[in-house]
Write a structure and sequence with these properties.
two-stranded antiparallel ribbon, about 15% strand, alpha/beta, 14 helices, eight-stranded parallel beta barrel, about 375 residues
């Protein structure tokens, strides 16, 4: 085993022990209005025991009204103590790893059980068009959530600007709102700019700030295109978003792609389409090259490594050795085997994700989400669905 994967790295003012990152994966197992349950805490305790260098707590909603998961986590004052308990337990098991909270608003991909809203007029009758004042309120909730995340003991936050949710929708060239939140690049990046600045004004200097971006969504007028009627990749504008992130003093960019509900095999390729993951490697390398050429300070996180199963370690190490990325992110693999880094060190057998999409099936059914191959609890939930 080469040591590159286990080389330490500085992010902001913090040193992480290795380059393996556990991506935000929703367990849909919270309770009492979005508070972490014992099952939620247990999932993160396992990741702490697994010695991941960085762990991102699943997409955590900043509002109570628009949720993608019926039992999703919500960050607010009422839930602060329960989230703090989760983080305290995590850090008691792994005091070297850093833990971040991904902040989200589900937007048009909110469930039918909540307020389904959109930044732009939607072709879905069930999605309500947000007013400018409502977007300002959402911005304020993100800022408050960033402050609460630090109070809870998190090392930083990830502003979710990917996968078709609110933060991603507002960035798109197809966002042609005729107010301060749309049409021009300045207006479409206002949410990211004002949210980041607002959080920085409230938190201490050593608090890590970053964002996960869908560099390319695979839809007409989506992120990674040149205009509202374009679908071919053009990264000029997204590179400007990343330069803006650096100017705002953010610490990292987590590169993803696609929209799970629309272009899902770009986001998380399955066996028949596994080579689409090569796009993810290419996107991350392109961003890393731009970061180096522009002398930006952002660290670059790559995605989709779970797709490569037992080859993932060699591919991740190769990307790190070539300086194509700074960290390698695993999503589905953290469900399959939360102890992956620890087992790599000890030489134990690893349970590799088999790309069956069983975890996604559970998520779409709005029940607890996990691995149906290796975990008996989720195996039974999957059987109960049939």
């Amino acid at each position: 085993m080469t040591s590159k994967i286990f080389d330490p790295l500085m992010i902001g003012n913090k040193t992480i022990p290795n380059r393996l990152l556990a991506q935000a994966m929703e367990g849909n197992d919270c309770e009492n209005g979005g508070q972490p349950s014992e099952r939620t805490v247990s999932r993160y305790e396992k990741l702490a025991n697994g010695k991941w260098g960085t762990v991102v707590i699943e997409a955590v909603s900043v509002v109570e009204t628009s949720l993608a998961r019926v039992n999703g986590m919500i960050i607010n004052k009422k839930n602060l103590d329960s989230i703090k308990r989760l983080i305290d337990i995590f850090k008691s098991r792994s005091n070297e790893s850093i833990i971040l909270i991904q902040l989200t608003h589900s937007g048009r991909y909110s469930g039918v059980f909540s307020d389904k809203v959109s930044v732009t007029p939607s072709d879905e009758n069930s999605a309500r068009f947000l007013s400018a004042d409502e977007i300002s309120h959402i911005r304020d909730r993100f800022i408050e959530a960033g402050f609460l995340a630090q109070q809870a003991g998190a090392d930083g936050i990830d502003i979710k600007m990917c996968h078709g949710y609110f933060g991603c929708e507002i960035l798109r060239p197809s966002n042609t709102r005729n107010d301060e939140w749309g049409t021009s690049f300045e207006n479409r990046t206002r949410f990211l700019r004002e949210t980041t600045q607002g959080i920085k004004n409230l938190v201490k200097d050593n608090f890590i700030l970053g964002s996960r971006l869908s560099l390319y969504e695979g839809i007409k007028g989506g992120c990674g295109t040149a205009g509202i009627n374009e679908i071919i990749e053009d990264f000029s504008e997204m590179f400007n978003v990343i330069k803006l992130m650096d100017n705002l003093g953010m610490d990292y960019v987590n590169i993803s792609a696609g929209i799970p509900a629309v272009t899902g095999t770009i986001t998380r390729p399955v066996e028949p389409s596994k080579y689409l993951a090569l796009h993810q490697l290419r996107y991350a390398k392109m961003v890393k090259d731009m970061v180096k050429n522009k002398n930006l300070g952002l660290k670059v996180i790559g995605s989709a490594y779970s797709t490569y199963k037992e080859e993932a370690v060699d591919i991740a190490n190769d990307m790190l050795c070539r300086d194509y990325v700074d960290l390698c992110g695993f999503g589905r693999q953290i469900f399959a085997d939360p102890l992956t880094p620890k087992k790599l060190i000890s030489g134990e057998k690893i349970n590799w994700c088999v790309l069956c999409s069983g975890c996604s099936k559970l998520m779409l059914a709005q029940i607890n989400d996990g691995c149906i191959v290796y975990d008996d609890y989720y195996k039974q939930l999957n059987r109960d669905l049939k």
